[in-house]
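INFO  loader      accepted 1 record
INFO  loader      residues=529
INFO  predictor   begin
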Amino acid sequence: MDRARMLFPVALVLLGALVAPSAAAHEKLGTVSFPISCRAEVQAEFDRAVALLHSFAFQESTRAFAAVAQRDPDCAMAHWGVAMNALGNPFAWPPSPKGLADGRAAIARARAVAAGTARERDYVAALETFYRDAETADHRSRAVAYERAMAALAQRYPADREAAVFHALALNAIALPSDKTYAKQLEAAAILERVFAEQLDHPGVAHYLIHSYDYPSIAERGLPAARRYAGIAPSAPHALHMPSHIFTRRGFWEDSIASNRASAAAAANDFDRLHAMDYLVYAHLQRGEDADAVKVLEAMVALGMPNVEHFVTAYALAAIPARYALERGRWEDAARLTLPLASSFPWARFPQSEAILVFARGLGAARAGDAAAARRDLERLAGLRDALQTAQQAYWAEQVDIQHRIVAAWTARAEGRLDEGVTALRAAAEMEDATTKHPVTPGPIVPARELLGEMLLEAGRAGEALRELETSMRNEPNRFRGLAGAARAAGLAGDGARARDYYARLTALAGDGTERDDVREARRVLGGR
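INFO  predictor   done
INFO  writer      dumping tokens
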């Protein structure tokens, strides 16, 4: 820890030593026009607060709305803005208990001062549907009710572009991960594209378009918004990060690295910083830039005890060391992983985050041949899965179940039951294919179908392995281990031309400083090219 703290200033430089946009001479957050009936002198600050909200700068936006309320105590929409911020990131819902309490209080203040127009009262009433009966009604029913209220509001005021944009955000927030037609996301995108044609400098439109298209089969459509968003709102760290969602879906690792270096260096809070660092370490590892990846890991350690309000922080703390071990195939290192800050961090609040590290440790143990250790982690994964089911977090319970099945499959392989392992891993891959990665993550810690290809390759079934690896790469393009595995499988299957093609793609992908054996082998096969 002491060494990491000494390295932290250097690590930040290596993350992208940029001047934080908030320190720039001229703040740039994009253009938002949200007319309200409050005092004229607070309109500009209100628009700024909404622009900050659209780029998920929740703390700064809350302060801005609070300043509006202080200057105009009768401005109900200022309290509406505080309540909107209290929801937090809708792509990481449900909100925290503190967020729900703060939001209910803000809505009560908005009701108490009485909004000045029917439109403003409708905004407050729509948001109140989310907070109403939060202690007794389940999260999804309240979120769906809020989306319906925003749909009605947008229909009632068709000239109100902010109503349309916030409705699109609500549509994205209630989209089911099991819906592979992406119906809600595409409905949101259609709304946003219409507004984008009119308002190219709107931060929320660009932001929410990226989220709408953050899926393998439709990610190409998100490139225009991804290319624009950081330029629209460079003073918002989250706007610097968000383009990397689309870059990751397309396998554009250099673009992702640039986005997340800028975001991590500019971040004013642990949430934004760690989220960017998770994406950053993932991108470096796909280029085989292990030396750069370990600097991100050291920077994470040097942060010490982060501010904890949401599972996104816990997710990055677990995912970064897990990725660093697994992407390099260091199974023994993975098997020795321990939870960061285990004595002080509230891991019990975030079973889906703890499961990431337990999964990596169990997979590492199984692939290192220590079936007994893997079985201990299987028991812990089962307990975490059950805790998530009890908490009615069905999505995350399913994700942990997939992780459990993967570790169980490799444990069977370690115990000499290859056919059982292949069958179990194929079932896990099919489960993963039927769901969707969460917006908080650049992708699965390791894709299940890629792992199936690796198991088949180890078993000498090269042709089958190649088919699975190629299928995996359609969803997760330009992954280092996917390309390297496909190249080996093609060679062993006797398809030299395809092997050379994959090796060529691997060498083009790899960073100049990579020392991985797969790149050396690729250069050998390609005759030194």
